[in-house]
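Retro notes
What went well: the complex prediction finally ran end to end.
Inputs used:
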Amino acid sequence: MEKLRINNISVSYGSIRALSDVSMSVAEGDIVALIGANGAGKSTLLNAIVGLVPLQNGEIDFEGEKICLPKHHQKLSTDLIVRKGIALVPEGRHVFADMTVEENLDMGAFMIRDQSVIEKRKEEMYDFFPILGARKKQKTRSLSGGEQQMMAIARALMSNPKLLLLDEPGLGLAPLIVQDIFNKIKIINEENKVTVFLVEQNARLALRTSDYGYVLENGRIVLEDKGENLLNNEKVQKAYLGA
Amino acid sequence: MLNFFQLILIYAGVYAMMAIGQNCITGYTGMLSLCHAGFFCIGSYATAIMCKTMGLSFWLSIPVAAVVAGAVGFLIGVPTLRLKGDYLCIATLGLGEIIRNIATNLNPVGYNSIPRVSLFGYQFASRNKVAFIILIWAFVLIFYIIFQRLAHSRIGRAMTAIREDEVAAASNGINVTEYKIISFVLGAAVGGVAGCFQTAYTLTVQPASYTFMVSVMVLCTVVLGGMGNGKAVILGAFIIQFISYFPQLTGLTNVIPAQAKQIIFGLILVVMMIWRPQGLLGRDKFRYGDPRSRGEKIRAVFARKKGGAV
């Protein structure tokens, strides 16, 4: 079943076109990766899904419901899109640096009004990311990059999303930590049945983890296939895998 | 001497009220707004016009001032709160000036001999300062408690999230625009109420007294005390008023020119930014989402003391 459907969307920043006629689809229960070089428009695409940047044309459907339409049309604001069950882990993590880990997780649960549910979910997160449990009273600023990334993911999971959007979860992290984070993403997907759509520069790892992949170049989708097929694709290997 | 101390207490109370409003906007939500003089002006005029021209009660003018100032805050907030940082600052600065100009055009000399405030038959006369001190500080206390509760509530939590990181706040399901407007309207409303008390004490209003300098002083109060800390901004109000009236207090009005105060405020802002950007008392420390009530916390402290451990 289709979870997210992106139909011919275009996005411009002033006169600069960031995305042109991008169409893609994310099936329920899958991990879908979007790979591409710097400036290809990957983050723009994720930001468009949650309504942080306006569309020029096209539309985005979530569970069969239109969530994003071009400007001048009635569209949902970011918080309402998030309430539908889409959680975004923004690029560069965007943690609340001056709050403790626990306060950050509380923020992630902003939409949940039942305190006992929040406590339960926090415990689940501490079980899943033990390092966060050990550091829950610490200011997020004092955490390492990898820990902050895990916290950003945990914070997004607090709202119990159906679709998790990850913007470069491996950005600026050591290879071992990146591997660790991708393993966690795999578990989240398999055990918690969360559909994952991730954007990544580390093409090899991203494609190996995902069921399906898209390649974005200069704001256009140039290739799409199953993750393993893309890994073996000559063009992808040449351009992104350095083979 | 005592007279001046009492005067400082009265003005510190009025400024503390304004600072509580400014703190809601700048301290909690992180919006740099510079139009508290405008809201202050609206409140002052509300009281002046209602008491003098319409012959209504002062007490009725308080909610009216709050609602009108809040409504103006809402009207200006909807288009401008999308702006960030310096841009918002300039837009609000313009608003403050617009309000002052409207007031000037309405009546260039302002209003004089406004009827005194009375409560249960007691008349608040300007020479009886103690009564005013009690009246104004009672209201400061009320607003302090209301805004302290607000800061610890769900709304306060959303405001803090917006201040820390708007993108993160939005991606956690917080309606950024909505909470920014709530914060701005509440801050404006308190600024308006502060104006009522100013009028009640001085019994005159003149458009010339609601200049940009007032907004700067209120912002200065919040920065000096500590942004996002209710107690700190009240402390800031005391210090700022003390500095303002220092020449009169020491009888040095002939030696220290009135302009010295502006130099001192500028100096305070610069010094604070360099050595203590968090303000004298720093940000209020409290934990969000703490399910325990205050009573339980106090009991927990006592229980620990009895145990003797730690």
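What we learned: The interface with chain A takes residues 154, 157-158, 160-161, 164-165, 167-177, 287-289, 291 of chain B (CB under 8 Å).
What to try next: split runs per interface for comparison.
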